[in-house]
């Protein structure tokens, strides 16, 4: 396999990817790692896992792994690790599922490789996407945005299956409160991690939050 310097020279940003691209290298931070789930449809069955990746420009994309690829790359695609994805196949997003990228997702195939990166990963550009609590309140229904605040409360998880959810509460520098609901995998995985940190009152970023108005 190529050296890290050679891989760095070959890297392209997520925003430059196009559907059906496959001979490429991207360098990403593993932003989130979902739960392994079973699936069974008309054409196939097995297990599936979705991993959220982000590059240094702050652009996020989902990578979907099936069956044996989940275990094969498990040690590399752990949350907060930095890695190169080599020869992943770029697919259009499935309109039946929510995605962090409007158009694209990454699929793994036989010649796809993952290599851990030891080089510095800059998150400076991530802050360009955050909005204030006041701006979030003015967003229209269905708007997707990023916010950051001090975590002050993590509610117990309630519901089952696709209705499983957990509320977390942020405050900002003006002590305004903002409630975010974590659904499904986020309720179970991220919710448990945040529960462990609640006594520290950490600063937490919530990305790709969708505003929903309940009546």
TrEMBL record:
Transmembrane segments: none annotated. InterPro entries: NA-bd_OB-fold, RFA1B/D_OB_1st. The keyword Zinc applies. The keyword Ion transport does not apply. Residues 35-116 form the Replication protein A 70 kDa DNA-binding subunit B/D first OB fold domain. Pfam families: DUF223. This is Replication protein a 70 kDa dna-binding subunit b.
